[in-house]
Design goal:
Number of domains: 2
CATH class of the largest domain: Mainly Alpha
Helix content: over 70%
Radius of gyration: 19 Å
Number of helices: 10
Strand content: under 5%
CATH topology of the largest domain: Tetracycline Repressor, domain 2
C-alpha cells in the first residue's frame, strides 16, 4: 500500500464552482472530509498547539465560514480528525483480530495490521499516538476510551475474563502503545513492523504463564 494512501483517500477531490450536479449534503461531506485530513496533516507537521484554523483552511481549500459551519473551534475539528485516525487504524486492526484462528495467531495478525498501518500512515500515527496528548481533556478521554475497547477485545480473544488476566491484557496493550509512540516521536515509523516479533514473544510468555496459574 502506498504511504499515506488511506488518509489521502479520505480527502477526496476539490469540488469546483458551477453546476457540478452534486447534492448539497455530498458537497458538505466532501468539505468535511478535506478539513479532517487537513487537520491531521497540519497537526502532524506543526504539532497540535501550533496548528491553526488558517492552516486547515489553506490545506483543505475552504473558507473560514465553511469551517465554522462544521466545527465550533479548532479543538472540535481535531476531535473529529482524531476519530478519523482511530477509524483508519482500528478498522484494519479489528478485522485482523476478528478473523478465525488460534488466539495467538489472531493477536499476531492484529499487531501486523496495527504496526503496518501506522508505518504506512505516519501523519495519522502522529495524531493517533502523539498529538492527542496536546489537544485537551475531551480528546484525551476519547483516546483512553479507545484503548479500553482494544484491551477488552484483546482479553476476550485470550479468554481473559478474570481481573488478573485483564490486567495482563492492559499491560500488554500499554507496552504496544508505548513502543509505537517512541518510534513515531523519533520519526522512525519504518521500524514499527519490526516490533511485532519481540512483542509476540512477550505475549506468548505471558499467556503461557497465566495458563499455568491454577
Amino acid at each position: 500500500m502506498e504511504r499515506g494512501s488511506l488518509l489521502k483517500a479520505r480527502a477526496g477531490g476539490k469540488l469546483h464552482g458551477g453546476n457540478h450536479g452534486i447534492a448539497p449534503e455530498d458537497v458538505m461531506a466532501a468539505q468535511r472530509g478535506r478539513m479532517l485530513v487537513a487537520m491531521i496533516e497540519a497537526a502532524a507537521a506543526k504539532g497540535y498547539a501550533a496548528a491553526t484554523v488558517a492552516d486547515v483552511l489553506k490545506r483543505a481549500e475552504v473558507s473560514r465560514m465553511t469551517f465554522y459551519q462544521h466545527f465550533a473551534n479548532k479543538e472540535a475539528c481535531f476531535l473529529a480528525a482524531y476519530d478519523l485516525a482511530v477509524e483508519i487504524v482500528m478498522t484494519r486492526t479489528a478485522a485482523a483480530l476478528g478473523a478465525g484462528g488460534a488466539p495467538l495467531e489472531r493477536i499476531a495478525r492484529a499487531l501486523d495490521a496495527y504496526f503496518s498501518t501506522l508505518a504506512q500512515e505516519p501523519e495519522v500515527a502522529k495524531v493517533f499516538l502523539v498529538e492527542v496528548y496536546a489537544a485537551g481533556t475531551a480528546v484525551l478521554e476519547r483516546r483512553l476510551a479507545t484503548q479500553a475497547v482494544v484491551v477488552d477485545r484483546f482479553a476476550a480473544v485470550l479468554g481473559a475474563t478474570r481481573t488478573d488476566p485483564r490486567l495482563v491484557s492492559e499491560a500488554v496493550i500499554g507496552a504496544v502503545v508505548s513502543l509505537a509512540t517512541n518510534r513515531i516521536v523519533t520519526g522512525d515509523c519504518a521500524a514499527l513492523p519490526g516490533l511485532r516479533e519481540p512483542l509476540m514473544s512477550l505475549i506468548t510468555t505471558l499467556v503461557r504463564d497465566q495458563q499455568a496459574v491454577p
